Amino acid sequence: MTILLYVVLAVAALFAGLFVYTVRKVRRIEAALPPTGRFVDVPGARLHVVERDEVLEIVFGPDPVPADFAVRGGGMLALRPSHFVAASEDLVAGAPSLAPLVARYGELRLPVSILFGREDRILDPAANGEAMVAKVPGATLALVPGGHMLPIMAADTCVAFVRAAAARLREAEAVTA
Question: Is the peptide bond before 111 cis (omega within 30 degrees of 0)?
Answer without folding.
Answer: no
